[in-house]
Amino acid sequence: MEKIISFNKIKKSHIAFFTVAVVLFWIKTYVSYQIEFKLGIDDSLQKFLLAINPLSSALLFLGFALLSKNHTKKWLIIIHFLLSFLLYSNIVYYRYFTDFITVPDIVQAFSNAKGLGSSAASLMYATDIFYFTDTVILIILALTVFKKASIMKQKTFKLVFLFATGVFLFNLALAEKDRPHLLSRSFDRNYLVKYLGTYNFTILDVLQNIKLTSMRVMASSSDITTVENYRRNHYSAPNPAYFGKAKGMNVIYVSLESFQNFMIDYKMPNGQKVTPFLDSLAHDGSTFYFNNFYHQTGQGKTSDAEFLMENSLYPLSSGAAFINKDQNTYQSAPTILHQKDYTTAVFHGNYKEFWNRNVMYKQLGYEHFFDAAYYDMSKGNIKNFGMKDKPFFQESIPMLEGLKQPFYTKFITLSNHFPFEMDPGDTNFAAGDFGDAIVNNYFQSAHYMDQALKQFFDSLKADGLYDKSVIILYGDHYGISENHAEAMAKVLGVPAITPVINAKLQQVPLFIHVPGVKGGIQHQIGGEVDVRPTLLHLLGIDTKKYIEFGSDLLSPQHRNWALFRNGNYVSSKVTQINGRCYDTNTGNLKIDQTACKSINEQVINELNMSDKVVNADLLRFYTPAGFKPINPDDYQYLGPNKK
Ligand code: GP9
Ligand code: MN
Questions:
Q1: Which terminus of the chain faces fewer neighbouring Cβ atoms within 10 Å, N or C?
Q2: Are 512 and 519 in contact (CB under 8 A)?
Q3: Which domain holds residue 184?
Q4: What's the gap in Å between 297 CA and the centre of ligand 1?
């Protein structure tokens, strides 16, 4: 009898309904942490933090529903759904990017809406319905068991809120203890989520964005002085053997979509080479092939690689500079060369709004942007985001030939893009057999891209441009994310992907061909930020007066390490990953963990300096001697029919 009475009481209590909502949400979030995200949980404190952080968020956010006296249930369900939606969006995003969504990403999603559909769909599974079942359960409970739940007192809300804040502060204190400066040095989103949870991470991210906006407003011309001094002390003087060897030549950049360095010289189990053309460049002796070269991109992917190569500045720690910093002042390579009478142009078989390129390219000083409007985008020619590489190069050649020389141009390929699918008839190269469809496809699409590149080079040789142009090919970023570690271990023939192997998988190939200059395989360690000084020095332009962060790869003073956007780094001796120090060659943890300290300090300093320049738009206070500040309105990308 007593039991029935108390159950009747519970049915009428909003706080009981609230508790059910919190518990369901807590369990779901915790389960998602276990199955969807690879957060690298190392010890029992971290396990504990991971278990309580979804509780503190559930209490806090769902607690707001208790503010509404008359519609508590309705608000609980709405907030529950919105949080579930945020969680699920993060899950889908993580499956591809191994990263979490940030505020700038949401802005990006709107600007990149075209073409994202098929990518996103291939990351969603029928079983994902699980992430919304608890919301459905809540709706059913609200209409049945808790139909008559009565109004709750304000006092209860205050208590819940106090309790939630208490749990959160406890969570934060433990996290700070385990990982000091967690909030102040938020380079790595993985950490923030591991310690504070996905929802609190989103709140932090919103605050961070407000901070960044105010940084620009507060900055003054004196801030650039520190950067100038830093720059002066970190300049790698050009190598006299190469300085000016490409003076007056054309420049042709090719961005190789998602192309990783392990593919060079890779042979399928049947002995077939995947990229025979690129392999031949690596060994022809007249092309520089950098085989210890790393991508340094963040969430801006292809556009971050462009940003690094063109400005020698690091991309943003969150979001894409192409979208969030499109009004900054830049002194980019195309602008520098345009002021030396180069024609500047980009070729890309996708719509010009993608990655906000149509706005950003004006800031970077590009005169021409040959986007989708210039290509035959009919069905057979496109896949994924846009043009297939073969028709793309074929149709580009006459447009390239039409440019006044010397020119500085960039070609952005697309076929080797996630999920790496090919249309029937586009390749006869057999897919891999590594037990993972994405990884298997990767070999086919890379092979197709390789053939397209060969065809492009053949055309350049036929029309004589090959002998008058510096050609730079680079992989923009990884193609196969950490989520495919099992298959990648098979691909590489190793028992497992260790942290150091994973770091080395961030290597992308870099090729530089300079007519008349002997090349060869180059082992020095570098990253995308280093390409601009390397190129400008080859073209005979000293970079001393420019604010840039790269170190000329061919300079005898080259620093020989590469940092990643999250603060990890690789040097010839040590590799630092998430605060741990490894031996680069053996892959083992160093017994002496302080061995990583000295380069780590340089890395932190370097990222801080670059972030200052980009976040506070400091180049607006600095004009290199002889450089004319650009006016973006000088450029208009109106399409082939309007001039
Ligand atoms: C789209 C292309 C691909 O235009 O640059 O972008 P990604 O997804 O690799 O950043
Ligand atoms: Mn890309």
A1: N
A2: yes
A3: 10-215
A4: 12
Residue 1 is predicted with a pLDDT of 45
Give the residue among 244, 246, 281, 288 at the shortest CA–CA distance from 516. 246
Contact residues for 461 (Cβ-Cβ < 8 A; gap 6+)? none
- Does the beta carbon of 412 lie inside 6 Å of ligand 1? yes
Same domain, 170 and 91: yes
Which residue intervals of 412-566 are DSSP H helices?
437-462, 485-492, 499-504, 531-538
Residue 409 in any domain: the answer is yes
Ligand 1 contact, 411 CB (< 6 A):
no
Question: Which two three-digit tokens encode residue 589?
Answer: 């943890």
Residue 301 CB less than 6 A away from ligand 1: yes
Tell me the pairing of strands 520-522 and 510-513. Answer: unpaired
* DSSP-assigned letters across all residues of 497-523: --HHHHHHTTB--EEEE-TT---EEE-
Query: Is 259 near ligand 1, meaning CB less than 6 Å away?
Result: no
Q: Is the peptide bond before 419 cis (omega within 30 degrees of 0)?
A: yes
**Ligand 1, atom 9, residue with closest C-alpha:** 302
- State pTM to two decimals: 0.83
Among 102, 202, 297, 302, which one carries the catalytic annotation? 302
- Cα of 582 from ligand 1 centre, angstroms: 32
Q: Residue 471 CB: number of other CB atoms within 10 A?
A: 22
pLDDT, tens digit, for every residue of 513-535? 999 999 999 999 999 999 999 99
Q: For residue 314, is it within any domain?
A: yes
Q: Which residue has the tokens 């350049």?
A: 460
Are 236 and 204 contained in the same domain? no
If you take atom 6 of ligand 1, which residue's CA is the nearest one? 302
CA distances from 280 to 276, 447, 596 (A): 6, 14, 36
- Indicate if ligand 1 lies below 6 Å from the C-beta of 551: no
Residue 302 appears among annotated catalytic residues: yes
Q: Are residues 275 and 204 in the same domain?
A: no
Distance 356 CA to ligand 1 centre (A): 11
Q: Are residues 190 and 238 in the same domain?
A: no
Question: Tell me, what amino acid is at 630?
Answer: I
Ligand 1 mutation target, pool 111, 295, 354, 389, most atoms within 8 A of CB:
354
**Among 215, 242, 264, which residue terminates a domain?**
215
What end-to-end distance do the CA atoms of the chain give, in Å?
86
**Which ligand 1 atom sits nearest the alpha carbon of residue 303?**
10
323 ligand 1 Cβ < 6 A:
no
Residue 618 CB contacts under 8 Å (≥ 6 apart), including other chains: 219, 223, 224, 227, 547, 612
Q: How many domains does the structure of the chain reveal?
A: 2
pLDDT tens-digit map of 378-401: 989 999 778 999 999 999 999 999
Residue whose structure tokens are 């000295």: 598
Q: Which of 165, 189, 215 is the last residue of a domain?
A: 215
Q: How far is the CA of 552 from the centre of ligand 1 (A)?
A: 27
At residue 514, what are phi and psi to the nearest 5 degrees?
A: -120, 115
Q: Which amino acid appears at position 241 of this protein?
A: A
Q: Which ligand has the minimum distance to the alpha carbon of residue 119?
A: 1
Q: Please write the tens of the pLDDT for every residue from 470-482.
A: 999 999 999 999 9
